[in-house]
Amino acid sequence: MARLIYSHSFKAVSITGGADHVALLRVEAPANQKVLVRFKIFGKSGTTHVAYTVRRGSATTGGTVNTLVATKRVGNDAETVQGVIREWTAQPTDKSVTNGTVIDTVGLIGTEKAVTQSYLINGGESLTLWGITPTTTTADITVECEE
Predict the structure, then answer these.
(1) What are the Cα distances from residue 120, in Å, to 22, 24, 35, 95, 129?
(2) Three-state SS at 93
(3) Which top CATH class is 5-146?
(4) Where does the chain show beta strands of DSSP type E?
(5) What is the pTM of this model?
(6) Spans of all domains in the chain
(7) Distance between CA atoms of 25 and 122, rounded to whole angstroms?
(8) What φ, ψ does residue 50 adopt, rounded to 5°?
């Protein structure tokens, strides 16, 4: 790892209420190096319960993803960000909880905040953040990565 730290902050991510998990973010490591990933979640609703699930190698079918711009912590670092951060603009059709290995779950109520542990993913692997809630809510989410 070259200690290249980068992030992307999401404001008011919408999490649709219901029985299905909602795919929120995916971090993809480049083929040739490991990436350390951490999520910061800030609840924005008054009393809604939200469970966030982090899955390693979460393979999904369908849906539409948007590649996001990662911001380097130190803007003049010479290294190029190789990892990719994506968000879903249309949900995947296969949202089975058996996709990928669940490695962490974080539960929040209302305006609670959480910082997940750091997850090390191998080159070529991905890590996906999912949310499930009974009623539609929003959250501010930041993903921080280190290559």
Answers:
(1) 23, 19, 6, 23, 14
(2) coil
(3) mainly beta
(4) 5-15, 22-28, 35-43, 49-56, 64-67, 71-72, 84-90, 101-109, 113-115, 119-121, 126-132, 137-146
(5) 0.88
(6) 5-146
(7) 18
(8) -135, 130
Q: Could you tell me the two tokens for 134?
A: 């009974």
Q: What is d(CA 23, CA 138) in angstroms, rounded to the nearest whole number?
A: 13
Given a contact cutoff of 8 angstroms between Cβ atoms, the answer to whether 61 and 94 are in contact is yes
Task: State the CB neighbour count (10 A cutoff) for residue 133.
Answer: 20
pLDDT of residue 95: 65
* Tens-place pLDDT, residues 45-95: 777 788 888 888 755 566 788 899 899 999 898 889 999 999 888 887 766
Q: Are 114 and 106 in contact (CB under 8 A)?
A: yes
